[in-house]
Amino acid sequence: MRTGTPLLGVREQINIGHRLQDIRAAKFPIRKDGQTIGVFIKMSSLVDAPARRERDAALGLIDEETQLLSYCGMLRDALLYADEYRLYGNDYTATLLDVSEFDGIGMKYGPEFRRHLLQNIVALLHKDLPAACSISRVGSCCFIILSKRAEDNDLQEAALKTTQEVHAIREVDGHPCTLYMHYAKAHGTEARSLDSLMRLLLQRLQRAEEKLYGLTLYSNDNLLFPRELFDTIPFGVIISDPATHELLYLNQAQRRELGLSYDEPLAGKTCYHLLMGGSVPCDTCQESNLQHNVCQVHIYHNDITNANLLLCHTLVPWNGKSCHFCMAINLDKYQQRHAAHDKVLYQELSMNDIIRAGMYEIDPESGIRKMMNRLGHLLSADHLLIAEEDATMLRFSHFWDAQDALPISREIQPFSREEIHAVYEHFLTESVFAIDDVEAFYRDTGYAPRLPNLQRLIFVRLRLDDRAYGYLEVINPAPEQMEKALPLLQALARFFAILLRNRNLIRRIDRLGKIDPLTAIMNRRGLLDYLKRLPEKRAYAFFFGDLNGLKETNDHLGHEAGDTLIKAAASLLESACPTNAVFRMGGDEFLMVEEVQDDAQADDICAQLHDRFRTAGISIALGYALASTPIDNIDTILAEADRHMYQEKIQHHKTRHQHTDSTPALKNIHPTDLN
Questions:
Q1: Which 3 state secondary structure label does DSSP give 544?
Q2: Residue 61 φ/ψ, nearest 5 degrees
Q3: In angstroms, what CA-CA distances link 630 with 192, 537, 617, 636?
Q4: Helices (H), strands (E): how many in the chain?
């Protein structure tokens, strides 16, 4: 248009049949009186349409059910629009349309109904939407429309028209249906990438569906609601003739309130008689004050239903005339529901808070203590106890005491289940139960309390996966908390049991990590744990032993014989140590720890060990070091004991006291004799 120069072989992309396609164009100027007044454009498709469709279908770009573009096809087109915007600054619009009721109503009436309904909606899209846009199906009944931003006005009008026409679909294949189409749109300039543009669309569509934008049709400033909207709402709706007071409509909630059946006719019934039990219009009747643009609100006590009602009155058009519209909300019901909701909310928040306190702890023991602390404060209890069971015995393992309560002794001895058989009889039928009057419970069951000052008790059985762990006992919770506590404790019981199970698993894993698997005595990690438990200011001898000739035994008799030799050495050391403080420190190295008075006693023990090993036909080099607790550096002590042991080993080799002295004895020892 500016230069008047023809352009030949121009490659462009335009929407043909609601699908972005490549074309080749030739553009010629149209002149009049020496001026260019227009452009003549000749276009031809670069790809034969049937061949292109076949290729797109093979690539999964076509939705088989609707023949619209698929999600992949939409992505291809969207990338082309995005490139156009990035390279030339031509903004574009993405519009997301969704009929959210489609899946639910389709499941209700079957696949044939679903197919026909989808065909109807797709036909509306083809009919209403501008040709200069591409349509893709990206969900059950969800579509994305891509177009240039210059087409926004036409697309907006078309989307509104389609929305109204979808809402106007009342029946398909003889099945009634009510549909609403929601839509959202976004522009390429609003997002930095195609992915962020799609997220923006979804956020806006979700907001539109939450606000039910598509359920309201606009006519100037009036909102038109379908009558079906009021049929199922939970509060009463009444429509009556303001001139005669005759009832014209009651929704289901109001019919239930009055004890009327769903289909009972209203002809001849008046509002003042049916609703208020009067024979003449009520003194408080609002009919004379009703206006279309005013909503009158007041609270009224209905003597018929004995309920306090919040009433909202106005005038609405109904079958060609203005009628009295009244919405009645039963305040008593909502107050009760609110109280019930508060109770449930209290339970949920309390339970979540307690569970979070326990389950976020890495150490289950710490988790149990924190849960008991939160629970004790919540129930305003004096004490919480956990009694763990083992076979027929019980022991209190965890305690919590209120700040102003006298602490319960932690020295309570284990006791048998038989002593509290009355409690376990209750557990046969209920996992949580409360005792409001402990003294009466004593008299009726013969239950003998083990703790002082018991007034109210709650017992909670702790079980998980058919494994019983014991019970939780709540002592003297606040009286007003007794009823609330039962469902809360029932829910928390599983989490207490989980923490007890996890603690046991960790202990078992920890114990296995401290045991040498070949000899079943403790290893070096077990030694470090053992040293932490030694009483302070005591003298101990650390006897370090190294077997002589283990390599020769493995080479000549096999590794099984070597293992037998190692187990025999461990067994001899265990039998010589009254406290079983024997540790395997390496392949053929052992440590025995024993409390002693002085070097002389340590020498005697070392000599006795040599005699035991010599009698068994096993050669071992021994050395020891003395140390007093607490042990600050075990490696220094072991190094000293190892040095003394090494001196003995050198002496052993000098006298050629080889392991051959022990191997004949080993040949006569059966492995089971060494266990």
A1: strand
A2: -90, -10
A3: 66, 7, 37, 13
A4: 20, 26
Q: What does the alpha-carbon distance between residue 592 and residue 584 come to, in Å, rounded to a whole number?
A: 9
pTM, full prediction: 0.43
Measured distance CA(264)–CA(260) in Å, rounded? 7
Which residues fall within 8 angstroms of residue 393, CB to CB, at 6 or more apart? 414, 415, 416, 417
| pLDDT interval class at 669 (50, 70, 90) | very low
Question: How open is the CA angle 391-397-398, to the nearest 5 degrees?
Answer: 145
Degrees to nearest 5, angle at CA 347 with 345 and 351: 120
Residue 198: CB atoms within 10 A of its CB come to 19
- Residue 281: asked if its preceding bond is cis (omega within 30°), the reply is no
- Quick: pLDDT tens for 359-387: 888 899 999 999 999 999 999 999 999 99
Amino acid (one-letter) located at 138: V
The bridge status of strand 236-240 relative to strand 321-330 is antiparallel
Q: Which amino acid is at 168?
A: A
Q: Is the pLDDT of residue 299 over 60?
A: yes
Using the predicted structure, report yes or no on whether residue 640 has a pLDDT greater than 70.
yes
- Residues 11-38: tens digit of each pLDDT: 666 666 556 666 677 788 888 877 788 8
Give the per-residue pLDDT at 210.
Answer: 65
**3-class DSSP state of 340:** helix
pLDDT of residue 496: 94
Question: How many residues does the structure list for the chain?
Answer: 675
Residue corresponding to tokens 């009158």: 296
**Separation of CA 163 from chain center:** 37
| CA 415 vs CA 368, 411, 419: distances in Å | 22, 12, 7
Grouping H, G, I as helix, E, B as strand and the rest as coil, residue 262 is: coil
Q: Answer for the pair 162, 133: CB distance below 8 angstroms, yes or no.
A: no
| CA dihedral over 515, 516, 521, 525, signed as positive or negative | negative
Q: What is the pLDDT of residue 204?
A: 82
Cβ(385)–Cβ(409) below 8 Å: no
pLDDT digits (tens, 9 = 90+) for 155-169: 888 888 888 889 889
Lookup: tokens for 123 = 């036909």
Encoding tokens for residue 139? 């969900």
Burial class (CB in 10 A: 0-12, 13-18, 19+), 187: middle
Computed over every residue of the chain, the mean pLDDT equals 84
Dist. CA 1–CA 41, nearest whole Å = 12
Q: Are 519 and 567 in contact (CB under 8 A)?
A: yes
Give residue 674's pLDDT band: very low, low, confident or very high (50, 70, 90): very low
Q: Is the dihedral of CA 586, 589, 592, 596 positive or negative?
A: negative
Tokens 């078992």 -> residue = 508
The SS3 call for residue 429 is coil
